[in-house]
Amino acid sequence: MSIIYLNGEFMPIENAKISPLDRGFLFGDGIYEFIPFFHGRPVGFDLHIQRMLDGLAKIQIKVGDIDWRNILDQIISKNEGDELAVYIQVSRGADINRAHRFPTNIKPTIFIMTQPLAKETNPDASTAKTYSIVTSLDKRWKHCDVKSTSLLGNILHFQHGYESKVDETLLFNSEGYLTECSACNVFVIKGNKIITPILDKQILPGVTRRIVINAVNSSDKYSIEERNVNLEEARLADEIWITSSSKQIAPVIELDGNAVGNGKVGAVWEECSKLFDKIKYL
Fold it and tell me: Would you list the domain boundaries of the chain?
């Protein structure tokens, strides 16, 4: 039986009740976060919580002082599994009617649940799960830096990849520069340069992305470049990685039906995955 947290109480998910007038349901008016836990240890906990609080501030939802670590440790202990993801969703709350303006004097709805997570990736090129992706023009809204629960644009892009029988969709803007994938950030590798699109409102500030950058900067063997990356650079890359809390660092071996580099998992991926593993719990 799955135990969830809803507005201050832990309960079986079957007992959870949220109003149909909740603005998260009516408008997608809320923020979410997804935090991986391996054997009870969270990856990038402080970065995840700070991103969520930043997002809530941007859309003017106030939650007050909450001991998030205590709540998440409890929900992990109440659910079975060594590899679990914690999903947090905070909506603006439920009003007495449906209106676009921000209502006053309502409490946010805070919902937290767990779900099974794939086992930790082993930084071994010979056994790594590989990914194939396609490209598409980015058609999402102009505030992708906010981790909003309103994900229709991302869903449509992900579905495009699914219907194309690949794992993800790599997006580019009207100027031909990469933004991110439908549910991942992206890195392009050329030689000893590890390149990722610069953060702006087109891109979610990914926690895994941040840890990868920190990991690479801990070594003097490779250099990180945060800058505009055009689609042609991706097509000529030695390696491509997509990163997220659920995938960690995922090697891409096929882009639009063509091999990335030599079509195999690269040595840079293997080395940087080891660097990532050394600091991901810090």
Answer: 3-116, 131-279
